Amino acid sequence: MGALIDHLQTKQPFAWQKKGLLFEPNMPGFTHGSHPCAVHFKDDVFVVAFTCRDMQRRSHVFLSYATIKDGGIALTGTPKMALAPGAPGYFDCDGVISVCIVSHKNQHYLYYVGWQNLPEGMWICDTGRAILNLEALTLEKEFEGPVLGRDKHNPLFAAATAFHVTDDVWHTWYNSGVKWEKTEQGWHHHYGIHHAQSSDGIDWVCDPEICIPFADEYEYAFGRPSVYRVDDTYFMWFAHRATKDIDTYRIGFASSKDGLKWDRNDALAGIDVAPEGWDSEMICYPYIIEHRGRMYMLYNGNEYGKTGFGFAVLEKD
Question: Is-contact 182 190, C-beta < 8 A?
Answer without folding.
Answer: no
